[in-house]
Write a structure and sequence with these properties.
The structure holds two protein chains of two kinds. In chain A, the strands form two sheets. Chain A has a six-stranded mixed β-sheet, with helices on both faces. In chain A, strands 2-1-7-8-9 form a five-stranded parallel β-sheet. The two termini of chain A are 37 Å apart. Helix content of chain A is 39%, strand content 19%. Chain A is built from 15 helices and eleven strands. In chain A, helix 2 packs parallel to helix 15 and helix 7 crosses helix 12. In chain A, helix 2 links the parallel strand 1 and strand 2. Chain A is an alpha/beta fold. Chain B is α+β, with helices and mostly antiparallel strands. Chain B folds into two domains: 112 residues, 60s Ribosomal Protein L30, Chain: A (2-Layer Sandwich), CATH 3.30.1330; 163 residues, Phosphoribosyl-aminoimidazole Synthetase, Chain A, domain 2, CATH 3.90.650.10. Chain B has eight helices and 14 strands. In chain B, strands 9-11-8-12-10-13-14 form a seven-stranded mixed β-sheet, with helices on both faces. In chain B, strands 1-2-7-5-6 form a five-stranded mixed β-sheet, with helices on one face. A two-stranded antiparallel ribbon of chain B has the order 3-4. Classes of the chains: A alpha/beta, B alpha+beta.
């Protein structure tokens, strides 16, 4: 398949593997931020092609994983209301809240539907004027333009039975939170290519300078990731801490400016709680006052949600790169994709689910 | 960032039926193991095959049943009628049987256009003729509007086993070649594309087809055939894991050797799905003695591939896959439903 096979070509991948081995003289710890990259690394076994001195830690870039429990609970409650059609991307449906997930809400009679775009949810609203249609607007910078567009169009077209339950999070504040913890092990970042396709990579220059850590904007195919690791190791070995772009076929330094303008018009930066990590200042997006009518939390009067949490799950440490999935005592035992304790076990992009799916036996047999 | 909250809530095991219980993966197997198998326990059910094979007055027979609840009722390459015939025919074929007679039970929703019913029935007639079976008995029930997706069909079938070989997971041998009859993932993506209104340049067509002839051809060629499995729900991955688990063996397959149609690959990439787990309705895997692999491939035609081998005995059963870039990883059964991902 064009534009895919070229980046999965074994010979080219192996050439980069050799080159990385050649230039690596000491131990380095890198973090890939995006869950899509984590999935590709584990699925294709990319980490097994790297020299043993290189450790890849899996970052907090899985939107499904970091959506706070309270918000899942709100989604489940809204989905259970009569006269509501609750729409969502597919992988949010299995994320456990306090009283089950959205699939459970569906099995109790809630009208829960998978959509592929928030604009599809808007069409559902238009076709069901007697119903309240809610879209679960989760994700990083990547999904924010489409969600902003849905709200913008809802207002332009006067579709008032549409609202969004917002849980947007932003990557750079999460990276800074990881870098600012005293015991951080991360020495370089593979920055998430698709996030940068929207917002560019200007924001990484001050982070690289302040923390003396290199960033390489990286794509999602095996060859992309190998190139990203190569560029990162080369910088580290040469003592540089710069921002480079491996994913030039998709990403420009300034990003997608019309998309950014739309997002700024609809959303404002707010503090946001991250599941497993806690609240991070300026790390999320919320609807601006001018669009408050489309805020599902306000429309359905959902306030004062707190979630009871159990201490059995280490997904917070996994999300910060402080431990690997199989370091958690619950991994593969109390916690499986069928009965996940934490969201990192739910999404295919979650590190625990990726390890369970591709590495379980290896872990069981030591 | 303050103190980290290193906790997540415990999700209770669902006490109600979930959609995942019907998706052919681990949830369905849990249901079989905890509800159905203990209640109905008997040696024939214990074969854990696509159908039950038994001897009746000296004749070896196979018996199976299947229900069909597909939405939409019509999709490129087939419809619920063709599926209902081929699904049961193929389960019998996987027992090494020649299918003979089918029953067909219809649950019709009030308000279903008779034209729709007639098209489905006509499609069943054509599929039955193609597979060489007769639909000899049936039943019809009607439910209130809103209580069914237009039309559900249940078929059951009997076939005759005209040889004395054992074709079952228990007959698989170390060293056997694993032969895949054709490209994977077409049925699942064809249905999903129509259901979700996804438009591709050329529509993906279901592979819905009877598998009687290719299986009979393998038998007639006297190929040392040890096990067959059609790759319906849960796809190739689940079929391989089921056999590995039942037979307690390790299977090793090569990603490069598994054919996936270009447009199916594209659709899967787009939705974040893995074609290894996508449903098929017209392809199967055959475990044959390695010395017969070439002849089996020749018999099945140009689309068939040897995708791997049976490597060794294994305590729990295991499937490993050598990826296109040369790294080996484990293949698991489908967990829950495959859900399209966010970005």
């Amino acid at each position: 398949m064009k534009y895919i096979d070229e980046y999965r070509e074994a010979k080219a991948v192996m050439q980069f593997a050799s080159a990385i081995t050649r230039i690596t003289t000491r131990a380095w710890t890198l973090m890939e931020v995006c869950g899509g990259q984590t999935h590709a690394i584990v699925k294709f076994g990319i980490d097994e092609l790297l020299p043993p001195q290189i450790t890849l830690l899996h970052g907090p870039g899985c939107p499904v994983c970091v959506t706070p429990v309270e918000l899942i609970d709100k989604a489940v409650d809204i989905a259970g209301l009569p006269g509501v059609i609750f729409t969502s991307f597919g992988d949010m449906l299995r994320v456990p809240g306090t009283h089950g997930d959205l699939l459970t809400a569906k099995s109790r009679g809630g009208d829960v539907r998978i959509v592929y775009s928030p604009l599809d949810a808007l069409t559902v609203a238009q076709n069901n004027p007697d119903k309240q249609v809610v879209f679960f607007a989760v994700g990083f910078e990547t999904t924010s333009p489409a969600n902003a567009m849905a709200v913008y169009q809802a207002q332009q077209r006067g579709i008032h039975n549409f609202s969004i339950l917002v849980s947007h999070v932003l990557v750079p504040p999460a990276i800074e939170a990881i870098l600012s913890t005293p015991d951080t092990q991360v020495q370089g970042f593979l920055a998430a290519g698709h996030v940068c396709a929207v917002v560019g990579y200007e924001e990484y220059y001050p982070l690289a300078a302040k923390y003396n850590v290199p960033f390489v904007v990286t794509g999602f195919e095996p060859l992309d990731i190998m190139q990203g690791v190569y560029l990162l190791i080369k910088q580290l070995e040469e003592g540089r801490a710069e921002v480079e772009n491996q994913y030039v076929r998709c990403v420009r330094r300034e990003g997608n400016i019309p998309a950014q303008q739309l997002v700024r018009n609809i959303f404002e930066i707010v503090p946001r709680k991250w599941r497993g990590i806690g609240e991070i200042a300026h790390s999320g997006l919320g609807l601006r006052d001018a669009y408050a009518d489309f805020d599902a939390e306000k429309r359905f009067g959902l306030t004062d949600y707190t979630a009871d949490e159990s201490p059995d799950c280490l997904s917070g440490l996994v999300l910060q790169g402080k431990c690997k999935p199989h370091d958690c005592p619950a991994f593969g035992k109390a916690c499986t994709p069928e009965h996940p304790l934490g969201a990192t076990m739910v999404s295919t992009e979650g590190a625990c689910a990726a390890y369970y799916r591709y590495r379980r036996q290896e872990v069981q047999h030591g | 960032m303050g103190d980290f909250e290193l906790t997540c809530p415990v999700s209770p095991a669902p006490a109600t039926v979930q959609m995942a219980h019907g998706s052919g993966g681990t949830a369905m197997h849990t249901l079989l193991e905890t509800v159905f198998w203990p209640a109905f326990a008997n040696p024939l059910l214990g074969q854990q095959h696509d159908g039950a094979a038994f001897t009746l007055n000296g004749a070896r027979m196979a018996f199976t049943t299947d229900s069909f609840v597909v939405r939409p009722l019509f999709f490129p390459g087939g419809d619920i009628g063709a599926l209902a015939v081929n699904g049961t025919v193929n389960d019998l074929a996987m027992c090494g049987a020649r299918p003979l007679y089918l029953s067909a039970a219809f649950i019709l929703e009030e308000g279903l256009p008779l034209e729709t019913l007639k098209s489905v029935v006509e499609s069943m007639r054509v599929a039955a003729a193609a597979a060489g079976v007769h639909i000899v008995t049936g039943d019809t029930k009607v439910v209130d509007k809103g209580k069914g997706d237009g039309l559900y069909i249940t078929t059951a079938g009997v076939g005759v086993i005209e040889h004395d070989r054992v074709i079952a997971p228990s007959a698989v041998c170390i060293g056997d070649a694993i032969i895949l009859s054709g490209d994977i993932g077409r049925h699942g993506m064809a249905v999903m594309a129509v259901r979700e209104g996804l438009a591709f340049e050329s529509p993906i067509t279901s592979d819905c087809a009877p598998l009687v002839n290719p299986v009979q051809a393998l038998l007639h060629q006297n190929i040392a055939l040890h096990c067959l499995r059609d790759l319906t729900r849960g796809g190739l991955a689940s079929g391989l894991v089921e056999i590995a688990t039942t037979a307690k063996i390790r299977l090793h397959v090569h990603e490069d050797a598994i054919p996936v149609h270009e447009d199916v690959r594209g659709a899967c990439e787009l939705l974040g799905l893995d074609p290894m787990y996508v449903a098929n309705e017209g392809c199967f895997i055959a475990f044959v003695a390695a010395s017969d692999a070439e002849r089996a491939l020749k018999t099945l035609g140009a689309q068939a591939r040897q995708i791997g081998n049976v490597m060794s005995a294994h305590q729990h059963g295991q499937v490993t896959l050598r990826s296109a870039i040369g790294v080996t990883r484990i293949i698991e059964m489908l967990n829950g439903e495959q859900l399209p991902r966010i970005c």
